[in-house]
Amino acid sequence: MKSLSEIDTVSKRSSRAAGYSWGIAEEIGKNIRLLEMFSLPGIKNLNDFLNKKKKIKLENLNLITEDNNMDNSQFCPVIAGVNFLDQIKSLEALSEIKFKNIAYPILFLPFVSRASEVVGKRIFLRLDENDFLLNFNNNIISNFSQKKIIKIAENVSIKILANEDSFNDDEWKELYKLSEETFVEENESLKQSGAGAGLTDND
Amino acid sequence: MNISLRDPNVVMKLSRLGSFHQSRLSFLRSFLKEFKDWDYKRDLFELNENGYGTAVFSFKKKDRVYSLICFANELDENERSDRVIATKWDTAFTLFDGVPTKLDIDRLKNEVPKQEIGRLSFKELTLSRANKSVRVFNHVVESLSNGVQPDKELLAKVGYLYRTTAVYGSGKFGLADRFRIKNREEIYGPFRLEMMLVYLVRQFTFDQVNHVAKNRNPKKAVNLDPEICKSLGIGNSTGLGMAPFIVNHPTLLNNWIYAREVSLKKIREIKNVTISESNLFKDCLKKSIKNITSWNTKSEYQIKKIKSLLKDLDQFILFLDSEFDFNQEQPFNKLYEHLEEKCEEECVEYVVSMMMEPYDNIVSPLIKKMSSEEDKYFNIPTERTVFELKTIIENKYSEILKIDFSKKENNLNFWFISKNKEEPRLANRFDENGSDLEQPLAIARDIKKLYEMLSMSKDSSTIAIFLSNNSDLRHVVRRAFIVEKFPYSEIQDNTIGKEIVPIDMLRLKLSFFGALKFDPRSDKWLRICMFQGAPLPEQLKNYDEHWVYN
């Protein structure tokens, strides 16, 4: 079994060899390590992508907007990803961000996962029929379980989820009430000797 | 009076970093301190009469066990080489996480001796190999088998029976990634498991030499005197592989230097120094002179440095004994100011290391902060502005910005990874091929280029926008934001210029390891000795922490 350190180093070097700058190659190394740690097919997709990269007409998406669509061509997953991560603070307010045709979208995914950590919000990513819930870069919940290469995602959408409770107020109150049963009722003398007792608070 | 931390523009110059010496902060010393109350055991020792076979040594505490597995093989004289291109060694080692089963040992017997082309697993933590100093090893066997102790003078000249040529860890060749073990308190200091491996290898060399001597002449042979064992360490040949490490781990480098600088600052700030503290400082300093007078090297570069160090130390000790009074406020600060005024960098840094000796209370808490979670600082704060980044560079790289990289001598060399051994190398870009495959280690040059590009950009523009047009500078944008938070994370020098002395970079790292007797064999590799004078495993429970000077 390859260690994550080996995966990082080889991904970085091969990406540099395929023409990315050292700074971008460093990002790819970290991303493939992340994918493999989450049991997603990072090496498989990167290897195929770097092999085919020169044969595909790829567009560099530098400025991310609400709707990112370039007819008849595919976005480079790395450049789109790195710019998504870099620009996440200005994208945070958008309710949904859409992309048409991202090549090898599994390579785009870790940038979005890292963006979730940067903004401190969960991000929902849909790559055609595959859904991913990216939880602050701590874990990924998905219906995508195959170790396969995805060459393109025609419809990609991203929703940055508001930090909201997954339960209602009544459920919380009910549970809180139960938790109170671990508390002990104080008698008067104990109340009088608690922190701050006996002092004027207007001093 | 508060004393400021030393200026990174002074401390992080290569000539200064290349003058660092071991100290209480050094990893081999902090390793011994951490593991002194662990139980040491030789679990297996199946060597034939010539010393070839398998051995296992372990440290154990409660449920945690670390086991060194040694594979000693016969090696033809023609095959013995310390070069990184070697493919066979006298002995190969791995540090195993736990107690190895017979199956583990059988698996590792096929892999560990192959080193870089073998495959390790997450159960193994570090990997190494070592060659005999044949002259010394044979002499010791010969002497012991005849019932006499070896010639101490010869041993003192070399200092070890074996020397390692590489120690690998952190996920190399399938070894365990650091994340698997990073939460173990006993390994909070950097390179602790690498230090454990070297320390246990040292014990293996003594046990092996005794075993071979005994087998040669069972009736007459004696064991190597434990005092002689103590005086021996493990040699190490180190090449350029270490140099990129300190560039590629900026926050780790910062944490090492920062611990040293904070120690110095706190010691200089001590208002009143007790007699026992000043005596301990003076005692260690004077005793340490023997480590310099027994420092053998043929390197003109190092001989010059040793001569200057001895001359400065003689004068400094004279000053200490005849003129200096510790009975004044902040005496160590006065001493430090005296050193900066009168001595070369080599001596200044030597005495700085010595100043730490009486102050375990200051140094020990800092040791636990010398590791780094580097991934935490990987993301670039892209919402910041061009103006902010320019200001950081002006403040943190002021010396670098003065270098003119259009001059050939400032852009003479390039770092690359050799194809045959996957090791870093340095070459002249105007004489050799391959500069198009240059590694991102020309930080000074790239920072200057970044500054020039920023100067042509709109001040209010965000870094996100800047990077979308300048992705070739991304690696140095990341570094500049790191140096903003970590002042000692960057070498403040040109690593590709004509004047570069790469062994300065090795020396920096090796001094933090705790190495002694740096012996440069060229400007690109050197030999050192580790654990010379250190207590033996059986002596660890009650050892003198100032053993380096005894």
Offer a quick outline of the entry.
The complex is a heterodimer of chains A (203) and B (550). With 203 residues, chain A is α/β, with parallel strands linked by helices.
Summarize the structure in words.
- The complex is a heterodimer of chains A (203) and B (550).
- Chain A is α/β, with parallel strands linked by helices and 203 residues long.
- Chain A has one domain.
- Chain A contains eight helices and eight strands.
- In chain A, the strands form two sheets. Chain A has a six-stranded mixed sheet with strand order 2-4-8-5-6-7, with helices on one face. In chain A, strands 1-3 form a two-stranded parallel sheet.
- In chain A, strand 5 and strand 6 form a beta hairpin.
- In chain A, helix 1 packs antiparallel against helix 2 and helix 4 runs parallel beside helix 6.
- Chain A is elongated and about 80 Å long.
- The N and C termini of chain A lie far apart (67 Å).
- The model of chain A has no long low-confidence stretch (mean pLDDT 93).
- The mean pLDDT of chain B is 95.
- Among the domains of chain B are: 204 residues, no CATH class; 112 residues, no CATH class.
- Chain B is globular, with a radius of gyration of 24 Å.
- In chain B, strand 8 and strand 9 form a beta hairpin.
- Chain B contains 20 helices and eleven strands.
- Chain B starts with 7 loop residues before the first helix and ends in a 20-residue tail after the last strand.
- In chain B, 47% of the residues are buried.
- In chain B, helix 10 packs antiparallel against helix 15.
- With 550 residues, chain B is of the alpha+beta class.
- Chain B has a nine-stranded mixed sheet, with helices on both faces. Chain B has a two-stranded antiparallel sheet with strand order 8-9.
- Classes of the chains: A alpha/beta (203), B alpha+beta (550).
